[in-house]
Amino acid sequence: AAVSRGDVKLLQWFWENGFEITNPKLLEVAVRSRHLEVVRWLSEHGYKKTAPVWSEAVKAAIRGGHVHALRWMTECEDCRGSWKRDFFKTLELAARHAHLDVVKWLLERGIDRHALSLAAEHGHLEVAQWIYGARADTSCCWVCIPMSKAVANGHLDSVQWLHTVKGGQCFARAVDKAAENGHLEVMERLHLNHPFCCTTAAMNGAVENGHLEVVKWLHRVRHECCSSQTLATTAAEQGRLNLVKWLHTHFREGFSASAMEAAAGNGHMGFIKWLHEHRSEGCTDAAPFRAAQGGHLEILKWLHMHYSNTFLPTTMDAAAENGQFKAVQWLHGNRSTEALFAAAINGHLDTFLYLLEHRPEG
Questions:
Q1: N-to-C CA span, the chain
Q2: pTM exceeds cut of 0.85
Q3: Is 80 inside any structural domain?
Q4: What pLDDT, in 10s, does the model give residues 177-227?
Q5: Which of 192, 141, 140, 150 is nearest to 171 (CA)?
Q6: For residues 148 and 171, is the Cβ–Cβ distance under 8 A?
Q7: The Cα angle at residue 176 between residues 271 and 148, in degrees rounded to 5
Q8: Which domain holds residue 20?
Q9: In a domain, 166, yes or no
């Protein structure tokens, strides 16, 4: 409390009365609280015998943008030598937190190529522009990495600026990530300004996260990014019915029985009914098995009505093994001895007792 309040007098009293003040976290708290006088006092009184991990205090100062504390730290030494060794890769941290004054100050003490990339990744355009303009050595500004970071995270202003000064090349995986994150405007800008590459992971990621407009755009202008083999199943896993309806129109060949199975396992009843009405793939025994695992009783009942041939003894085993008591009760007509053992092995006492009481042997 004394450190966070900046109470040097109280710290002095503790020290004079024999209390050891050596916790390295105290220095970090003092820096984070912007109490430079406490930082100075701790360095002069609190750490005479053992040196704390100063690098954490340095990082705290950088995260908070406290240039005055950083300047003082570089002039100090503890019992193991200069504090300057604790500034390794700190410029990256400053760039990530958009502290331009700290970036400028640290630039005099060394920079590596990751600082520009981190500024671009987090959308700190002013910091990125200053780093780029201040460096004669462009090894810190490798073409692809900053643009890739900006694209993947959807920072359109950074993408536009990097395109102007660096030509805008980026890695295919960055475009895939932009699609996954739904950054359609960034992808459209890239498409207008210069060629770019993406993979089928772009469409898969967009479907998984429900970005229908990105899916439509990729289908319209970037066919190499589209693969229909698993899209319906991916949408079913997440319950993306609007996407499945669109895929039904544009990728009719991309459906399989695994779509209904994925929907059953995740409890998406509306999804299952739509597939049953509009598609002909049906399902395998994996659908009731997965529904039983998850305890989706209404889905089990519906599947039994429409796909009773897919129910096997292992369906009840799956419910028993996962402690789905209500599902076990309903599936009792399809019970198996293995279900009793599965319930016992997995510690589901109520399920075990029910099966034991109602087993055919009496």
A1: 69
A2: no
A3: yes
A4: 999 999 999 999 888 876 678 888 999 999 999 999 999 999 998 877 777
A5: 150
A6: yes
A7: 150
A8: 1-85
A9: no
